[in-house]
Amino acid sequence: MTKRNQVPDLTGVRRLGGSFRDPAGFLFFENDIPLRQVNPVYADNFKLLTGSGLYQELSDAGQLISHEIVPEHKGLDGKAWCVLRPKWLSFVSYPYEWSFFQLQQAAVLTLDINLKAMAKGMILKDASAWNIQFDGCRPVLVDTLSLERYDKSKPWVAYRQFCQHFLNPLLLAAYCDATVLQEFIFRREGFSAAYAASRLPWRTRLNLGILMHVHLNKRLSVNTSGSDPAATFSFEKLERVLLHLRGMVASLKPRASKTTWEDYYSGSISGEGYLNEKAAVVEELIQLTNGITATDLGCNNGYFSRMLQQAGYRVIAIDSDVQAIDQLARANHQSPVNSLLTIVADISNPSPALGWRNSEDKQLIDRLEADTCLSLALWHHLYFQYNIPLADIAAFTASICRQFLIVEYVPVDDKKTQIISRGKEQLIPGYSREAFEKAVSVFFRIIEIRMLSEEKRIIYLLKRNT
Q1: What is the tens place of the pLDDT at every residue in 316-361?
Q2: SUPFAM superfamilies given for it (predicted)?
Q3: Residue 135 phi/psi, 5° resolution?
Q4: Domain limits at 151?
Q5: Cα separation of 240 and 42, whole Å?
Q6: What is the pLDDT of residues 168-207, one digit of tens each?
Q7: 98: pLDDT strictly greater than 60
Q8: Which residues pair with 273 in a beta bridge?
């Protein structure tokens, strides 16, 4: 029996639920500080990663998460070769929450890292989309231990995973429907070549790259240990394959389609007058808030998300419209300020905890908490389209809002409300300004009220009750 004084003090220490697949190491938390344990089996690879200059090159470029080595730390089980303290990212997202452009950027990053690694005698042993996170709008590899020594006599073992997690879903989004990316929520292992080939149009067989990487490769997708097109390649040939894949991925564009909300502020409502008045009010109210993080629920094209960003917030911009989010992600990528992350998510049906024992991906609601929340032209949709009571909407919003809420009340006689309430007249008696204020007053107190003359809408600045 183990003596009491031999038992390590694990107070405040817990292993990350989803970090268990790689024998090289795992993530754990110590007093809420994230640490990565590096096991002895990875020692030689870690020495090569740092000694070759690859780690410094990738971290300096913002392509690999930076870390500090924690001196004399023995890890969670006392057997660590070393322990790293990686840079902390304020928000964790998953591939089913990304737009086409985000997955495309993550794919290009993966290939670029692999090319740089090969030049230093290393290679990616994993090419999982879950190994990528977004630091603001920029993708970064967070799995430091996914790089290993490159054996030129062996194929790139992660080739098939790259195709399943990046190439195949991007092709499906480009040729079929951009919403296919949300299928990642139940396709954790990605999109097989057989599945992609069955959905891609026949004309894609005339594209040499798609023919080789998808249609001819589909017979291999059912064999998890079979050969891949990269199987017998030398360094030079594998390098050409990676460059070819990069060109393919970078040239793809999402299949265009007209969506309900992508031109909400330019074409669907009264337009410039309303937008200008609303923008002035929201900007004024943002100046009355304070904090570090902000969430924009139903952000649409991100017009107001950028106001939060300009006010100094780190912003999570969320909308279910994949095309609107993709346009925002593209525009955001050009911004010199890297403090806005776009997320594709349906607030009325947020993603649950997923993965093994529901411990690998955290549910969306647990990740959304912010100092300030923006909720413009959203509540009437939740109420009439999804039959969610105002009290429930208020409770949900309060659960993710630490301090301030800027929220828009859209009256029942508004043109948009009249459209979405058709056939649901029985809900109208429960929807009023009085009912709205009663619902929010349970959790918030009213700080400011602004009436919009153009549309008779009302914008409130609320503060959480203490």
Answers
A1: 999 999 999 999 999 998 888 889 999 999 999 999 999 988 989 9
A2: S-adenosyl-L-methionine-dependent methyltransferases
A3: -95, 95
A4: 95-251
A5: 29
A6: 999 999 999 999 999 999 999 999 999 999 999 999 999 9
A7: yes
A8: none
Residue carrying the six token digits 């153009």: 454
Task: State phi, psi for 140 to the nearest 5 degrees.
Answer: -145, 140
CATH number at residue 239: 1.10.510
Count CB atoms within 10 A of the CB of residue 350.
16
Q: Which residues, at least 6 apart from 302, have a Cβ–Cβ distance to it below 8 Å?
A: 296, 317, 324, 328, 331, 332, 340, 342
- Dist CA 168 CA 149 (whole Å): 27
Which of 251, 282, 303 terminates a domain? The answer is 251
* Per-residue tokens: 245: 């894949």
Of 199, 165, 176, 3, the C-alpha closest to 94 is: 165
Rounded to whole angstroms, the Cα distance separating 195 from 216 reads 13
Give residue 217's pLDDT band: very low, low, confident or very high (50, 70, 90): confident
Asked if 332 contacts 301 with a C-beta cutoff of 8 angstroms, the reply is no
Query: pLDDT tens-digit profile of 218-253?
Result: 766 555 444 455 556 689 999 999 999 999 999 999
Is 44 domain-assigned? no
Amino acid at 81: W
Q: What 3-state class would DSSP assign to 387?
A: coil
Specify which residues 462 forms β-bridges with: 405, 446
Structural domain count, the chain: 2
Strands 293-297 and 314-319: parallel
